[in-house]
Specification:
With about 300 residues, the chain is mostly helical. Helix content is about 70%, strand content about 0%. The protein has 14 helices and no strands. The protein is globular.
Length: about 300
């Protein structure tokens, strides 16, 4: 995936290179944020013949690989509508992983702007999250089409669950991107460490396997099940599956009873509140470090 920088001359001149005022200031300067997002998207496909078509081809290729390896070769296809189950998790995990990895490197990639211009430095991780959100659009199109072919029956509760899952991923991904982007300025190994972390995320959530397997395997250890569910990304994946995969199964009510944890919406709401609390903590850490960023870059 190509990385890009935003040329300083494309941004309006500002008074001084002093640090500024946090995430709220980022959204107050929506013009700058919009410019960064547009630049990142256009630069990612610059010189490409297929352009945005790659946004469809990349998730399709990942879906095919995971489905063949885990659905056919390893015999995971006993899960009803397994391709939908897999791809639903893939969409939400990809959103979080891309937000985290791109956000971690965002300040270092745009070092010239950080050194010379007075704009909220939180803008770069936030822009990375919005670019990631833009790229899940094609994935959602593929997912909805696949669900419709599988007899998907959407419902209001399911759509609410999917939105809640996206909000959890967006807030937690941005929170961690803020912390790691600041740390990456002082220690460039952080970016490589984040790549390793995202590898664990894929296997630490019920994406390639159903949550029923976790409940069965840990039925004698309920505290471990609760620990597994304490991961906000796990809750986000389950909420997204509630929105799409559940409606694509033969008996959605039976699927909810056997594959979803109790009080899913309450758990998801707690995960969102926890993610927002982490965001406030991340903002505090970022604010303490941002004044030293220009000299370390």
């Amino acid at each position: 995936m190509a990385e890009s920088t935003v040329a300083p001359e494309e941004l309006p001149p500002l008074a001084s290179p002093a640090a500024s005022g946090g995430i709220l200031e980022v959204f107050r300067r929506r013009y700058l944020l919009k410019l960064l997002v547009r630049r990142e998207i256009s630069a990612r496909y610059q010189g490409s013949v297929l352009g945005l078509v790659w946004s469809y081809l990349n998730p399709l290729s990942q879906f095919f690989i995971y489905y063949v390896v885990f659905g056919i070769i390893m015999g995971r296809n006993q899960t009803e509508a397994y391709p939908i189950h897999l791809f639903t998790g893939l969409v939400i995990v990809h959103f979080f992983s891309e937000t985290l990895t791109a956000g971690t490197r965002s300040i270092v990639r745009n070092r010239r702007i950080v050194e010379k211009m007075a704009l909220p430095r939180e803008m770069f991780p936030v822009a990375s999250m919005l670019v990631s959100a833009f790229h899940i659009g094609p994935q959602l199109v593929i997912l909805v089409v696949a669900c419709l072919f599988s007899g998907w029956r959407p419902d209001a509760a399911g759509m609410g669950a999917a939105v809640l899952g996206l909000l959890v991923c967006a807030s937690l991904g941005t929170s961690l991107a803020l912390i790691f982007s600041a740390a990456n300025v002082f220690l460039r190994d952080i970016g490589n460490g984040v790549n390793i972390l995202t590898n664990f995320v894929r296997f630490g959530v019920p994406m390639m396997y159903p949550f029923e397997n976790v409940m069965t395997g840990l039925r004698d250890h309920p505290k471990l099940i609760e620990l597994y569910l304490a991961n906000p990304i796990t809750e986000a994946v389950l909420l997204f599956q509630r929105g799409f995969w559940v409606g694509a199964t033969h008996d959605p009510r039976a699927t909810i009873a056997s594959h979803m944890p109790d009080h899913l919406f309450l758990r998801g709401s707690i995960a969102l509140v926890a993610s927002l609390a982490i965001l406030l903590l991340a903002q505090t850490v970022f604010s303490r470090l941002e004044g030293k960023m220009p000299e370390r870059l």
